[in-house]
Amino acid sequence: MAIGAEKIDRRSCILIKARSTTRSALMAVVLEALASNLSNVLAKMARKEVGVLLGISDKIDSLRVRLDGLKEFLADAERRRITDLHVQGWVKELKDAMYDATDILELCQLKAMDQDSRRSNNPSLLSLRNPLNAHHIGSRIMALNQRLDGIKQRAEQFSFIKLDRYGDCSRTAQGHGLRRTTPELDRSGVVGNKIEQDTRRLVELLTREEEEASAASISSNVRVVAIVGVGGIGKTTLAQNIFNHQDIKEKFDKIIWLSINQEFSDPELVRTAITGAGGEHSGHQELSLLQPILREAISGKKIFLVMDDMWSVHAWNNSLRIPLVNSAAQGSWVLITTRDERVAREMKAIQPYHRVDILSWQDAWLLLKKQVVSTLKDEYAIEKLKSTGFRILERCGGLPIAIKAIAGLLSHKEINEIEWGKVLRSPSWSVDGMPEEINHAIYLSYDDLAPHLKQCLLYCSLIPSYYKLKSHLIVEIWISEGFVNGKLNELEELGKEYFNELIIRNLIHEMPYSELGMHDVVRSFCQHLAKDEVLSSHMGQLRVSDLDSKRYRWLCIENELDWSALQEQNSVRTLFLYGRTEIKFKANDLCSKFSNLRVLSILYAQHGSFDSLCQLKNLRHLYFFRTDIRSLPDGIDKMKFLEFIGITRCEKIRQLPGSIIKLERLRCLNLMSSNIKSIPRGFGRLTSLRTLYSFPVQMGSSSSKDEWCSLEELGPLSQLRNLHIKGLENVSASSSAAKAMLGAKKHLAIWWLECTDRQRDDGFLKEEGIISIDEQRRIKEVFDELCPSYCLEQLYIRGYFGWQLPKWMTSKASVRLDRLTSLKLDGLPCCTKLPDGLCQLSCLKLLQIRRAPAIERIGHEFLQIQQHNGDCHPSRAAVAFPILETLEFTVVLELEEWVWEEHIQAMPLLHELTLDRCKLRQLPLGLASHARALSVLKLFMVHNLKSLQNLPSVVELHLYENPDMESIRGVPKLQVLSINYCPKLKLLEGIPALQKLYLLDFSMKTLPGYLQDVKPKICHCISMGASCSDWDKISHIQKISGYAGEMRIRRRWYVFYTREPFKLDTNIVCSSISRGIIDGLLKDKERRTKELRMVKLLCALLAVVSTNNSIDMINGSGDPTRESTASAAILL
What we know:
- By secondary structure, the chain is an alpha/beta fold.
- Among the domains are: 31-158; 192-355, 3-Layer(aba) Sandwich (Rossmann fold); 361-436, no CATH class; 451-530, Orthogonal Bundle (Arc Repressor Mutant, subunit A), CATH 1.10.10; 534-655, Ribonuclease Inhibitor (Leucine-rich repeat, LRR (right-handed beta-alpha superhelix), Alpha-Beta Horseshoe), CATH 3.80.10; 677-763 and 773-826.
- Helices cover 32% and strands 15% of the residues.
- The strands form six sheets. The protein has a 23-stranded mixed β-sheet. Strands 2-3-4-1-5 form a five-stranded parallel β-sheet. A three-stranded parallel β-sheet has the order 28-30-32, with no helix packed on it.
- α2 runs antiparallel to α4 and α2 packs parallel to α6 (85-121).
- Residues 219-374 form the NB-ARC domain.
């Protein structure tokens, strides 16, 4: 019997929405985390003697005493508020008081900074205080102290007990290793045979062509299949498994993944679909502009579209139905996952719907073990706990998301009966006040978090699933909200540890491009907890009454709105304005009422005036993305707490205000893809900067009278971790580069050096890109002085036009880059050879060299380690590139020779090698001898290469437009071979393990003879013409996928053929005669001779244009050379 089957069957398919009404509601604020933040603020104020400076130290001390007296009750109060409405009211009162305390203390700091600044400017005022400040703040603190006294007195009626459950907040787990869903599949969450069986069944349905669309289809060319089940049961995992199946990738021209859920945005969905189809949406916001682009991108193509986590048919009807139905080719499919059968019914999904069952006992136990076990010792220990483990799993109800959540908790416990017994007997399994549909395992995992991690997790649920927020931005916002407490120089690193711990606990995950992911069940749970303080509005759902009803702390809005409607929310600490938001300011609309705002993110907003931003005195994080902002306010220096500024892809802003150099707390300035050309002079005063992206270099020096700063102002910025410098061709003298003191920056880990690109994508110089000898010399001298420190981990150089790479990349460099893991060199138009120091980068894992057209030879210097007197690392010199995994040479147009002799040891861990657009005559001998881990080899347009041989470890080989390639020998482990446009290839020998062969050549008239010499299980072929005599070349192949078509639609016609057991599938309807033959074969599988005859006939179809011509071809009287409006076609 499956786990929890009886219980699951009684459940509704639809979760209660995030803002549902439940009387015993949980609140977003985590009291212990808020109290901890207050304690940190008080400690900082004490160190800076803020109270003394303002003359209110006694009142601040009394506030500290009262807060300390309440802290011991907080854990018990937070637990009991879930079921006790009276405790809930008490907690809300205390929470409001704590927020007010935070606001008052930050006001104290602001006043102290103002007073200290005036004293610095006028030392004669040293003994003077502002009595008005002291009286005003003192009165507010006294009133707050009275409130806290009353709150503590009322606590006595609840008889709270002291609970001390949490240790060091900075501790992170060392263990095993949101929701916008992603097509990427985490194999650790896939267990058992059931999901593989379901995958095979659905893939077979999706790749089977039927004569006519089902009666339940939404159109003749697009059909829908539905996966239905309760939240967290594994619908997305099954959809991911299908999406990544090789048969799906082979059958469809475009495969697209869309995550829908309750927070989707119509424009965002269509933009994502356009990107998935290979189109370019140019950032358009209007559906009327986006839908034609989507239609063009999918026109005539067979589409497989996954719409994951659908709650209604709105996304389909309003955004996607018309483009797909009108433009996609016949045989296109839409796969949806949903909790609600009504969605499947309204989309006319074929029946029966596929229902995902809960996990069996065996699969549930296997999933738990995969998430918890990390060593063989763990494997042995966990088997002894099988009885207790099964009882825990029974409470998870067979839901994969619940099992993974509880496994994340168990991974932080010792694997013994005592710890697992505590989890089994936890009272959190029976806590009241949560939606019935959310398994208590989610709450149990949440309850086990330290307070600071609870706050961080709840915050993640605020961010809409379609909002592509990267992990580093999440960490910055956590810091801005005060959730990350630690030493100032470690906050970003500590925040990343918080993020990683939530990943380990299976409560969030990191998607491609480092974006936040969160399962919709976890999101629903967190939104339920946070509903009294969070409002997330989208698609025009915001009403004025929504804003009037509560005091929200966090707002996320995608609406056209009047700024004045927001101003009543003066308790807001985070405000996201996203998507189609048009901020309508009136003459008297100010930001002053948002005095408590810490985080402001504005994305895609238009027609906004941001002049009053400087009134946001408490703001920490300011972020603009694709807005029409033209300038920051001149008074930005009044925002003294500001730590993070992001202005990315904002094309209308040209410069920063001069007062920005007074933001002494600024930790990050991100100007990526903006048009800011200069930075104000005096920028070197911002010594707290950790991250600086797109720093634009201007000509000049510190001695010039220009208003913008020069490169040398980077010198004092010793705390930099991430640095991107652009426009380095503007540096007039190497002395300016030397004064940047990059070698002294001991924390610098990620570094981009960029000159304005003078090359096209094909490697040739642009018309205006003439580079003189003097320019080459000067840029070489500048880069020589930009020597990094030993701590560098990632280096990216783009557009460098010196004739040699910098001297610090040679073997004689004074600094060894022993921590460098990634090196990317893109755009080296004048560089004639690679330096001899690259091979000594002992930690390098990735090396990319792109657009280096002047390099003709890779000589001994690339791999032969140079020994020098005084080398302090002789043991590391034995092997060149000892842990390199990926090597790529792209657009090295003149490269003819690569010297790597067999006695030179190098690259023992190389996994993937790419050679793209070069003249290499042969692969180096040492590659086969020493790169024994090489499994993927890609050769694109390697024009002089005639043969490949002796590649003992290669598993995948991809060849594209290699015109001189004649033979491939001795690749014993090769399983996947892709051959595109290699007309001279005649011999394939010594590839016994071949599983799949892909052959693409639209000029091919007959199938190549080498097909007779190989025995792949699958042959995938696209060509332009052949004859039925080719059948003997491929008759031994188990599975054949053949395509043909016009130049615009390359897979217009197809045939899928399987030899044993027989299966034939095609979309060709030549005539009633040929269709009758095909139907007869499909019905009578014993007529083997006629089966082969049918396939031969299909091979003879050279001009599928008209019925009459097709009949002629079948009868053998057609002219295969006859011109036609369609391209000649071969189907295997």
